[in-house]
Design brief:
alpha/beta, Rossmann fold, 2 domains, six-stranded mixed beta sheet, 25% strand, transferase, Diacylglycerol kinase
């Protein structure tokens, strides 16, 4: 049975989600929501950069899209700077009986112990009321630090520490709000970016640490431990999102650690450069300009590196694709799941079924 899907937004991830829904043999795109008035009335295929029409016209009429009664919404709208508004949108979809896969808010990837119950409960109630499910995921937070590391640990005899790293050059990462207002790149070293405040790293990536701990059966010390290293620009840099004058924030290394009896057991770690020449003493990918790395210390010692890049060679472009496709490919499993907030621990194996060129996966 083909599942009818609405795509919610056509930004950097949404464009790839449209292309992914169109490519998936078990999904049918029936509607697209946009916030930009200039996009209203345009064909989804053109908004996705497909150079062909899909016969689906973008609209900013949310009610009209909900009236279509889709099986699922792929929600890729920006949530980092409109957290509560985004949660209200998700609750509305769920109450309407529509299953949702979403790229954010990332705190809902695994919200338990990350946000208060009074924030989680209304979402779960909306899901029960509508008989629908919500799954928040992507690549990071998402596959690179939930399914991938937990799968690697299935090979372990004993585990001392699980560490998930992102090592990346963000110079071609187009997210001006994230780069400037959240991380603070290009801002004074003593500036008031969101990330400069204690607790923000745990809010953004604590869900990763807590979900891994749940998957490993650990009870963590409270609170999670944050470690942040900020590096000033040694000269002027320019990225696609923000200019970085000399002396302003140019590189960021942070850790969010879950400890047991004061010992690190589960760690999420990012090494973020805005130019490949920065911080040569930091780890670098084995291949390309960006990677996700899982290191499991114990018996045996294991390390797995996931690198990706688009056909144009850019890992930040492919980063949007893998984020979108983790959501798109999860749609059938999320629809089949019990109503409520669905995490990676709740889903069966999600694959690229139906996407092999020239193969008929419907058989």
């Amino acid at each position: 049975m083909v599942l009818r899907v609405v795509e919610w937004s056509t930004g950097t991830v949404g464009r790839d989600a449209i292309a992914g829904i169109d490519a998936h043999p078990d999904l049918e795109l029936i509607g697209v929501w946009v916030s930009d008035p200039a996009k209203v009335g345009r064909d989804a295929g053109r908004l996705a950069g497909l150079d062909r029409d899909l016969g689906v016209i973008a609209t900013d009429d949310a009610d009209a899209l909900l009236d279509l009664k889709p099986d699922a919404i792929v929600h890729t709208a920006m949530t980092d700077d409109r957290l509560m508004e985004a949660i209200e949108d998700l609750k509305r979809f769920l109450r309407a009986g529509i299953d949702v896969v979403s790229s954010g808010p990332v705190i809902l990837q695994f919200p338990y112990g990350v946000v208060p119950d009074e924030l989680i409960t209304p979402i779960a109630e909306a899901a029960r009321e509508g008989g629908a499910s919500l799954h928040v995921n992507g690549i990071d937070p998402g596959f690179a630090n939930d399914v991938l590391p937990l799968t690697v640990t299935s090979l372990s005899r004993s585990i001392d520490e699980v560490r998930c790293l992102e090592i990346a050059d963000y110079s071609t990462y187009y997210q001006p709000v994230v780069m400037s207002k959240i991380f603070g790149f290009g801002q004074p070293m003593d500036g008031e970016s969101l990330f400069a405040h204690p607790g923000v790293a745990s809010l953004g990536w604590g869900s990763v640490v807590r979900q891994l701990a749940a998957g490993l059966g650990l009870t963590l010390d409270e609170p999670l431990v944050e470690r942040v290293e900020r590096v000033a620009a040694d000269r002027d840099y320019s990225t696609v999102s923000v200019d970085i004058p000399e002396g302003t924030l140019a590189a960021l290394h942070f850790e969010v650690a879950g400890q047991v009896d004061g010992v690190d057991r589960v760690v999420l770690e990012h090494y973020t450069r805005t130019h490949p020449d920065q911080c040569p003493h930091w780890p670098t990918p084995d291949h390309g300009a960006g990677c996700y790395r899982v290191v499991v210390r114990g018996e045996p010692e294991m390390s797995v590196e996931l690198s990706h890049h688009g056909r144009d060679g850019d890992h930040n472009v492919s980063g949007m694709i893998v984020t979108a496709m983790r959501l798109v490919n999860s749609v059938p499993a999320v629809i089949a799941a019990a109503p409520g907030i669905v995490t990676a621990l709740d889903l069966p194996l999600v694959t690229g079924r139906g996407l092999v060129a020239g193969a008929d996966a419907r058989a």
